[in-house]
Design a protein that fits this description.
single chain; 2-enoyl-CoA Hydratase, Chain A, domain 1; OB fold (Dihydrolipoamide Acetyltransferase, E2P); eight-stranded mixed beta sheet; alpha/beta; about 625 residues
Length: about 625
């Protein structure tokens, strides 16, 4: 059959797709139309809804007029399909009219117009681009130059270093200071970008993380009404999504200049409680360079770890608040310098610059965020551990060398090095497994646990337990520090903290007694007693007793020593001490099952790895509450 003789479907009515007003009729009766050509337009719910030709055809009748309301399904246009050959004439001119383009040409023109439109920037998109540009550092080159001249970086530069490239999603970039009633909006947009706080989410080594960076170049990094709202939004997401948080806390505290809100004192602000509520739920890292006072410092102090750049000053009040409180004038850099605060436990890690601070943050997030990775070699030849302790039982040594040797090379991150110096605390990896490590330091008070060391270990146990890190302890202690001066530090309470915290630990503990395991102090370093760890071993140099052996001999054999002739008293003491040392040696201790094993020091790494591999296979039990003794 010839193509021209093919049967063409009969005419049919095209119905309204919505209930709406007819606002335009684009064709006339008799017109030939192309597939997809708009025939009529309705308006419904403020939207324009076109009625399009279902194929090539001719308009037979139009049953609507502009301004009429057509119900959904109403017949609007009678449409008659045409044969393929006749369709080629679509758009041919009627008598007295100018030539119209063919349907094919119309579609080509429309495609070209669409392509141009896609490349072109609409007016609203241009406004967006210009407004967003004001939020970026490039819009304030003088501020960037001033910041760099002082050896510091912009908030966005710190975020960019921390996060994986291209992973940052910002929240609240268009906020400005809540001062529209007293300053022009365009000025606020130029001078208070992001309201002085950059917030968002991203990834660190592929793992999600939230970031919150106060911008000191905007109103001295102060906390305004809207940037509190921004921080609350992000902190709520951290709680919901279990995102770790990295906080750059530099700033001057509350901002009195914000007036666009109906409150009085702002003491119903929830930011501080929200961040504190994340403690123990997600990892929290606080970083400070420059000056960090009042509210900014309060947030910093809630973090798991505080990383401070040399030259920073941190305090619960800045110079203005100090002077306003009648406490005299003080320079900002003298409020809470790093050297002072590191020695009282405020600072976990001191670093030379913000780049190093970012690297510490990345390492911490890795250690608390990824339990097991591929094992690295030990930090040094494990055979050197056989000679890590002097043969003289009273000689000093450096416990850090032992920790570095046992743990994976390059993995040790020491915390609070300058405070509680009778104890070394660090996070590290052992054959790829993230662990928390505490080691006695005989270079301070012979390794005795004083009040700062007790507090350091108690909080360190909480940190390990919150993030599921097994605890490894290296023990060499004469016990708790005693004496009138020690008791003036509330030693009874500080010592009690170790037992209360240890009793609530969920994570496994493995303990190695290097040398002296004396009394309550040794018990505190082994999670409460020698059978509290999943395994307790000793090196052959280990020696044990209910208290220091010299003291035990002088106290326990006082009558015998007093009864001995003066010339023989010292010899008697030496003989009794030798007997006590022999009785308390590691092998005898193990024979009475008070410890689990005595090991070659060179086998320490392998022994710990085996113990923890078995102990960490079981899921952790639920956390339980307790009353901290201090």
């Amino acid at each position: 059959m010839d193509v021209q003789q093919q049967r063409v479907p009969a005419a049919r009515w095209l119905a309204a797709g919505v209930h709406g007003v007819v606002i335009g009729i684009e064709v006339q009766v008799g017109d030939l139309v192309a597939h997809g050509q708009v025939l009529l337009v309705q308006e419904a719910m403020k939207m324009e809804v076109p009625l399009e030709a279902p194929g090539a055809g001719r308009i037979v009748a139009i049953a609507a007029a502009v301004g009429e309301v057509a119900a959904e399904g109403a017949q609007l246009v009678e449409f008659e399909p045409v044969a393929a050959a006749e369709a080629a004439q679509a758009g041919a001119p009627r008598a007295g009219e100018a030539a119209r383009p063919t349907a094919g040409a119309e579609r080509a023109d429309r495609a070209e117009d669409d392509a141009r439109a896609e490349r072109a920037e609409r007016a609203d998109q241009g406004r967006l681009r210009e407004r967003r540009a004001l939020t970026l550092d490039a819009a304030r080159p003088e501020m960037v130059a001033r910041r760099h001249a002082g050896g510091l970086r912009m908030a966005r530069e710190n975020i960019a270093q921390l996060l994986d490239a291209g992973s940052f999603t910002e929240y609240g970039a268009f906020a400005v200071a809540a001062q529209r009633s007293r300053r022009p909006l365009d000025e606020l947009q130029r001078q208070t970008p992001a309201d002085g706080l950059v917030t968002g989410s991203g990834r660190v080594d592929g793992r999600p993380v939230a970031v919150m960076a106060y911008d000191y170049t905007v109103l001295a990094g102060t906390q305004g009404m809207l940037n509190h709202k921004k921080s609350d939004r992000l902190l709520a997401l951290c709680a919901r999504q279990r995102w770790p948080l990295v906080l750059w806390a530099e700033g001057g505290g509350g901002r009195p200049g914000d007036v666009d809100w109906p409150g009085v004192a702002g003491l119903d602000c929830t930011t501080f409680a929200r961040l504190a509520g994340l403690s123990g739920q997600v990892p929290l890292v606080g970083i400070v360079a420059g000056r960090c006072f009042a509210g900014n410092a309060a947030l910093l102090g809630c973090c798991d770890v505080v990383v401070a750049v040399e030259g920073a000053s941190i305090g619960m009040g800045g110079p203005a608040m100090i002077e306003g409180g009648g406490l005299g004038r003080v320079e900002a850099d003298a409020v809470g310098p790093v050297d002072t605060l590191a020695k009282v436990g405020v600072i976990d890690a001191r670093v030379p610059d913000e780049a190093a601070a970012g690297e510490v943050a990345r390492r911490y997030l890795s250690l608390v965020g990824e339990p097991v990775i591929a094992a690295a070699p030990p930090g040094a030849d494990v055979m050197t551990l056989r000679h890590a302790l002097p043969e003289n039982r009273n000689a000093l040594y450096d416990p850090r060398r032992i920790v570095q040797t046992v743990m994976d090379a390059g993995s040790v991150l020491e915390l609070r090095r300058d405070w509680g110096t009778g104890l070394v605390t660090a996070l590290a990896r052992l054959e790829g497994r993230a662990v928390a490590v505490a080691a006695s330091n005989p270079r301070h008070l012979g390794g005795a646990l004083d009040a700062p060391a007790c507090d350091k270990l108690a909080r360190f146990m909480q940190l390990a337990d919150a993030h599921g890190l097994p605890l490894v302890t290296f023990v060499d202690t004469p016990g708790f520090m005693v004496g009138p001066d020690s008791e003036k530090t509330a030693m009874v309470r500080h010592a009690g903290r170790l037992f209360v915290n240890a009793a609530a630990l969920r994570v496994p503990v493995a303990s190695v007694v290097l040398r002296r395991g004396y009394g309550l102090g040794a018990m505190a370093l082994t999670a409460g007693h020698f059978h509290a760890p999943v395994a307790t071993c000793a090196w052959p140099s280990g020696e044990f007793g209910p208290m220091g052996l010299e003291g035990a001999v002088r106290l326990g054999f006082r009558k015998e020593l007093e009864a001995a002739p003066p010339g023989e008293r010292e010899a008697l003491f030496r003989r009794l001490l030798a007997e006590a040392v022999q009785r308390g040696e590691a092998l005898n201790m193990a024979s009475h099952l008070e410890i689990d094993d005595v090991i070659d020091p060179a086998h320490t790494r392998a022994w710990l790895a085996r113990v923890l591999a078995a102990a960490c296979a079981a899921p952790l039990p639920p956390r339980r509450g307790f009353i901290d003794a201090w």
